[in-house]
Amino acid sequence: MFTRASPSRGSRSTNTALFKLILAGNEEALRTRIYEVRQQFFGTVEAEHAPIFLTEDILDQFTVIGGNPKFNGSPTGTFAPPSNSHLALIAMVGCWAHRQIQPFDHFDLAAIPIFRIWIGVAEYLFRSTKRLDSTIRSAVYDVAHRSDDLEFVIAARGWSSCFYKWRFLETASFFENRFEEASAIGSDMTKAISQS
User: Fold this and answer.
1) pTM for this prediction
2) What is the DSSP letter of 61?
3) What does each C-alpha distance from 48 to 43, 63, 126, 142 come to in angstroms?
C-alpha cells in the first residue's frame, strides 16, 4: 500500500501543488514555497554572489529561443529572455526538498552530464533573486505557457504512477508463488500464539 500511495503524495506535494498555486494566482504562497526551497538548497541571498556550477557563458552556448541560437533571449545577450514559469525546474528542486534529497551530496556518485546540467540550470535560476522573481510573476500572470505547464504536470504524474505501478507489480510477482506458503505459516503462527 505504501508504494501505491507514494507517487500520489509526492506528485501532489510538488508539481500539482505548485500548479494549483499558479492557477489560483496566489503569488505570495508560491513565492514563499519557492524561496523556502531556495533557502534549503542554495542558502540566503548572499549565495547569489557565490560561483555557480554553470556559468552564463556556458549557458549562452546552448540558448535557443524561437529557433535562433545565441543572443536571442540569452541570459547575457542584449534582448531580455521571454517570460517562463520554469515549472519543471521549480518542481524538480521542490521534489528534492520534499524527499530531503541533497543533490550536491551525491554529486561524486551521480556526476553524469545530464545530472550536472539539471543541477547547474536549477542553481542558475534559484541563485538569482531577479530571475526567480521573474519566474514567479510569469507563472502567476502570464498564461502563454500555462498549457505547457499543464502538460508537464500530467506527464509527471503519469510517469510517477507508471514507475510505482511497475515497481509494485515487480515486487508482487516476486511474492506470487509464496502467498500459499506464507498463509500456511501465518495460520500456524496464529494458532501457536492463541494456544500460548
Assistant:
1) 0.68
2) T
3) 9, 21, 8, 26
